[in-house]
Amino acid sequence: MVAAGGRDGAHYESRGSEPFTLPVPLPMPHATTLQYSAEVSAEVQGIPAEDPPKKQVLKPLRQSWSSDFHYHGLDLETEEDTGLAFTNYLVNKAHRHRMPPETFASERHSLLRQGAEGSTHIDVHELYWADLSRLSGSSPRIVTEVFTLIFRLSRLARDTVERASVGGNKAWRLLHHAQAAVDWILVNVMAQFFALLLGVGLYLVAVGLLTGGTPLAVKVTVAVALTLLFGGLLGLAYFSRGAPQSVPASAPALVAALMAVATGLSILLLPEWTVAPAVLAILVLAYLAALQAGNRRFPGVWHIGVLLLVLVLGFVLARMLGFLYPVPSSTSARDLWLDGGMTALEAVLKAIKFTWTLLAATIFVWAVLSLVLSAVAWAGNDLQRRASAATGRLGLLLSLTTLLVVTMALWAALNLAVTQPLKDHNYEPVFWKTEAAAAPNVARSSGSELGTQLPYAAVPPQSAASSTSAAGKCKSGATEKSRPSDAFVDCRYRGTTQTFPVIVLLMGVLGLYLVATVVPSLLAELRLTRSKDPVQARRLGLWLTVCYRWLDRVVALVTLMAALAALAVVAWWLAKDTGLWTVPDSWASLLEQTSQSWLGLLTITATSALAVLSLLGGVLSRVLPGLRVPLDVALDVDNYMREFPRNAIPRVRMLARAQALFDALARGGYDRVVVVSHSQGTVLASETLRWMSSQSLGRDQPGRAIRLKKRLNCASVRLLTLGSPLRQLYAARFPKLYAWVLADHADRNGPRAEDVGVERWANAFGSGDYVGRWLWARRVKPPRKYHPLIDDLEPGLGRALAYDAFDPMPPDIAALQHQAEFETCVGYDAHTHYFDLPGSAGETQVVALLADDLIALP
């Protein structure tokens, strides 16, 4: 960046680089004025945990309902800054759970600045933090983090609404409980049932293919697949606990691989009657390993998952022991184990149906409360509660719809997978006894006399067109003693996915809006569109701003549609189960045909995407890094807000690393410290500087800049932020934690340099930056409604709107000297080109000029 040069012909010469390694101790927490009860004082004051820790059951379940930060009342309406209090709480928790110290390796680059006033020696220290937040190039972690993100969006939404409910009336507290209930059912119950459904499906496929007359090649393939699944989840469970530093990383991986290989070989070598219990044991252990890994980020998952697993296994044993259905003496061991698996499948599907009914009612209550209270907050110009409710809706809807689409795709894939393994097995249902399937001209039987007694063989001749439309229909009829298992599964699949078009419609409305919002910016990001015209830059910025400002309204509309759709799905099921009212056959047929065609396309798309991620994930990340920027941004926010895992909290680890580097600069005896940061790095830099310049957790702390200069042993500290999401993402979506970013001052709205302890704060952004843009705007005076994305400015430095550049460019040096905070738009650009090579774009010259001014300005 600095190679582009600075003001008045100043240029920089490289004088070499050298690596350095720093120890990273835990930062010390600040004193707090909050009075804690004796029950929680040890938790929040940093008293070390017992060794070994006591086994607790109720605490993880409580943590799955509410954040510890909120549960302990640490976000009460006090004189303390909520954002600092939250960071302080995480630091305390890290101390209590003995987060291990780390080391940090980086590079120091020596430069010589040659300018009109002479030469100046400069050291550039790199602070790399993305390894604590971003994805690695390994595709398994990519898939794992995407699934984690699905559930974390809902949890972030819950915590945001909970903060807004503090100090609110009963209606806001009721909204918090409704939001928490939807999140709890979604993450801790519904997701668990979907995981169990996947496990039961894998069990049926594996047992069906590993027994009977299946070719050896197929058996070997299934055994290898189980081996990879078992070994991968064992390794995930081990590393999620935090491996001791004394144990080489290769050791547990080798042990897991050997265990997995031994398991796969035993499946092939054991007698056939032992295959089913061996497969069941493998899948149970794999499920427990997945629970162990998930419990570190989602407390309570282990306890609830184990309980649900025991219940499902109870249905398997009850069926096999004859408690649910008499077992004929002639039943083979294979059929007995498959009967148990089919009963488990029925039990899980019935539980999903009941849970969805409960979830639909809760969603309706939550949606009504959220929309009504948002309207009240809008009328009262209450930014914090209005924005918090909107964040609650956005996060929950994204998690809910994405989870449903993913599980629908997996359910469709399982339905296809069980066709071959279960085609020669007949099953007597426990819950759906009267549902029969009509198939054209094909007798579906296992070769026994049952085949001639079933309706599948007694279908009159019909045309090809009519037979195709009748092939998968499932309708109520007389109770059947038995039916082919694959046909029964197909009936259940069709019955549970008829309403899939409703989900697609909801996702489509929100998805198309988000795509339309960011497509112009993505085109600029990929350099497919370029312009040096300031009018075009302003148009790009206005488009993105207007779309972001309307996003909450679109989400509110989708929320209302989702609430009505949830009730409609329940009504549909009641109509089919009870017959209280009749659903026209034409509606049912249209929904079924649409659902199956869309699900088929979704399955192919999802499978292809998974294959591409698995085979080319690392390559795509290196060749086209812009494609993963949206995912990286979501992961950055998610990691920065996490309270778990307790001994490796991402925010505390990043804060510790940044503070260690600043402490090293203090020992270096530098005259001036200039911090240059980009994207999420601007959040880390500003939060770290706020933390280091604070002497308490108070909201107003005069003298931050003086304290920071003393701590860093320098004469001046200055900050340059590029593409900062502080305003349009963090403050807009988490307004209580980042109230200081949107504070009103005499001359403007926005943060002050004094808030983070720096003497001067410069900011730059592209007009189409979909992650972060401006930080300062015109102060809004009542009765005008306030919004974080107000883009008009107080007159100064030749700018009227946020998307304008300095006029003249570069600005007069005397004008900048009197500005503690200033910013500019670099033009028609997005998020990743601020540090391009000189000459590739004018944006780099603007950024280099700002950096040079911060370095050279007296």
Describe the overall structure:
This protein has three domains: 317 residues, no CATH class; 390 residues, no CATH class; 66 residues, no CATH class. Helices cover 56% and strands 9% of the residues. The protein is built from 24 helices and 13 strands. A four-stranded parallel beta sheet has the order 8-9-10-13, sandwiched between helices. Strand 9, helix 22 and strand 10 form a beta-alpha-beta unit. Helix 5 packs antiparallel against helix 12 and helix 5 crosses helix 18. About 7% of the residues have low confidence.
Give structural attributes.
858 residues, 13 strands, four-stranded parallel beta sheet, 56% helix, alpha/beta, three-stranded antiparallel beta sheet, 24 helices, 3 domains
